[in-house]
Amino acid sequence: MSDKPVRQGNSIVVAENPLSFYLFNSTRSAWIWLIIRLYLGYLWFTAGWGKVTSDAWTGENAGAAIQGYVQGALGRAESGGDVTGWYATFLENTVLPNATAFSYMVAYGEVLVGLGLIVGLLTGIAAFFGSIMNVSFLFAGTLSTNPLMFILATWLVLAWKVAGWYGLDRWALPYLGTPWGKNKNNE
């Protein structure tokens, strides 16, 4: 494809620059995504496993940890801190009354995101749901590793076609009817 935009039917296709093509479309960059995937997957899996095995998350006292977390976020909202009013309203009216259900969703969601990233299965989807959880924690005023994890997850979402190349996506995505058909652009 040339460097100039090309008309294809009713559309104009703008050529992709070599760096973004390499990062997001070429399997030669898959080793970069493997490192990021394994790191992020490990963080999610270990965080989730700690919650799954905790009584305050999924045991007899399920929901207690979420309640404490939400109360802290609501306190930060009241003091004019890091939590916006609309998110505090969501926490107070939706999460708090359903703390047990949210507790299970967070704990098992973190484990599933971690496993998906580690084995490279539905990598883009796993990274997307991980980024949703990161944003939720950020909205609740928790920094920690969430900004870094959000950035890495976002990049994995962008690289979904090659991020799981050294993983199960290499076989699962073609089976599901996505991107790796035999063509001259597969590198």
List keywords for this structure.
187 residues; mainly alpha; 3% strand; globular
The biggest sheet amounts to: 2 strands, antiparallel
Number of strands: 2
Low-confidence stretches: 183-187
Q: What is the average of the pLDDT values?
A: 92
N- and C-termini, Cα separation: 15 Å
Query: What is the string of helix and strand elements?
Result: EEHHHHHHHHHH
The tally of structural domains comes to: 1
**Radius of gyration over alpha carbons?**
20 Å
Helix content: 55-70%
Question: How does the helix and strand content classify structurally?
Answer: mainly alpha
Brief digest:
Helix content is 66%, strand content 3%. The chain is built from ten helices and two strands; from the N terminus they run ββαααααααααα. The chain is globular.
Task: Give an account of the 3D structure.
The protein is mainly α. Helices cover 66% and strands 3% of the residues. The protein starts with 5 loop residues before the first strand and ends in an 11-residue tail after the last helix.
